[in-house]
Amino acid sequence: MNTTETPKNIHQGRNVKRFREMLGLKQEALALELGDDWSQKRVSLLESKEVLEPELLTQVAKVLKVPEEAIKNFDEQAAVTYFNTFNDTSVNHGPFMGSFSTYNFNPIEKWLEVIEENKKLYERLLQSEREKIEILKNKG
């Protein structure tokens, strides 16, 4: 398989959109991060592409701070199916069959919580760096 092929049912542009939305970015913000050649309309066109060129994939993944493989291989339906197997009451749970509670949760919501926490940590780190820079300016 070469780098421009994609597994069945994986839409890389749609995955870019999913990750962008999970990060709380609008298309305009992503365009701004990607550089002067980018606009909201160009990001929209990017998100409609089934397969991204390798260089473009690398650039977008870097801006979104996600692994390229995540954009190339993320399959929302497969993820939901995977997590739903934990709620399948037909699965033999050993000697306690049927005694487990069913927990329904959305893996995307959990992921969003983690991303939100990462954003908070990043903001604290950024504030700390700003304070360090200010201290160094005042010493000079």
Could you walk me through the main structural features you see in this protein, from its secondary elements to its overall organization?
The N and C termini lie far apart (56 Å). Helix content is 62%, strand content 0%. The chain has helices spanning 12-22, 27-34, 40-48, 54-64, 68-73, 76-84, 107-139. By secondary structure, the chain is an all-alpha fold. The radius of gyration is 20 Å and the shape is globular.
Helix/strand layout:
Elements: H1 12-22, H2 27-34, H3 40-48, H4 54-64, H5 68-73, H6 76-84, H7 107-139
**How would you characterize the largest beta sheet?**
none
In DSSP terms (H or I, runs of 4 or more residues), the helix count works out at 7
Topology order in helix (H) and strand (E) letters: HHHHHHH
Q: Span from first to last CA? A: 56 Å
Given the helix and strand composition, which structural class is it? Answer: mainly alpha
Question: Cα-atom Rg, whole angstroms?
Answer: 20 Å
* Shape designation: globular
Please report which band the strand proportion falls in: under 5%, 5-15%, 15-25%, 25-35%, 35-45% or over 45%: under 5%
Quick rundown:
The termini are far apart. By secondary structure, the protein is mainly α.
